[in-house]
UniProtKB/TrEMBL annotation:
The keyword Transferase applies. GO terms for biological process: methylation. InterPro entries: Erg6_SMT_methyltransf, GPPMT_Stmyces, Methyltransf_11, SAM-dependent_MTases_sf. NCBIfam families: GPPMT_Stmyces (NF041943). Keywords: Methyltransferase, Transferase. Residues 93-189 form the Methyltransferase type domain. It comes from the Bacteria. This is Geranyl diphosphate 2-C-methyltransferase. The lineage of its organism: Bacteria, Bacillati, Actinomycetota, Actinomycetes, Pseudonocardiales.
Amino acid sequence: MTSVARPVARTAYQQSVADYWNAEKDPVNLRLGDVDGLYHHHYGIGDYDPSVLDGRGEDRDKAIIAEMHRLETAQSQFLLRHLGDIGPTARLLDAGCGRGGTSVQAHQRFGCRVDGISISEQQVEFANEQARLRGIDGAVQYHLRNMLDTGFESGDFAGIWNNESTMYVDLHDLFAEHARQLAPGGRFVTITGCYNDLTGGRSRAVSQIDQHYICNIHARGDYFKALTANGFVPINVVDLTEATIPYWELREQSSVATGIEGPFLTAYREGSFHYLLIAADRV
């Protein structure tokens, strides 16, 4: 594990986020990752196989867990496809890497070096151990760093992504740091939940999600304002709202449900919350 000399968490809020994820051992993240050793901290996309609900007892539970993991792995694969053509000599940054699953997939897909960062020491240690067990720790490394001020050199990265981690930071500060780190023409991709600013402020369901994850969900329009202000040109926007609903419907029926499934489904169905992929190039 590597870190910069100055404190990683710069505010009381950032420290509370680090404390939350340092203490987190939620089965919805761990049991799904146990399926094949890819540990994610995001949601899924695509239709699920309804036959997984037909079994009983432990067999039914295992089938549901495996299907949920398939959907969350499909989500990260979808994100990585939008990075474009990445060669084996490139370097990528996973900003807000969680337990590292997407970074591993990126290395498998492109064969290049990948760095992941998190303000959670527990996540960084876990992810580095997984890379070591896979024998890829020379190419995939995780660091205890702040995504708003990483300490990496300017222009070092061909691509950067945030997979469901932008809701913990100020978007202008984040995209300014990403613009600094990306080489000219480099690409940024995010998949994120955002509230529908055409319907007003945060709905009750969106506020419940904020409270559950101690985050601050941004308005949809704020992403495009902050990207443009920091020299990014959006090249692809995909609304994944309908594609993620089946994941939440299946999760609600699983043994790893946490109680937040209802607010997610309500927010998506009523239109107050959107699940988007945004890909943007640094000009």
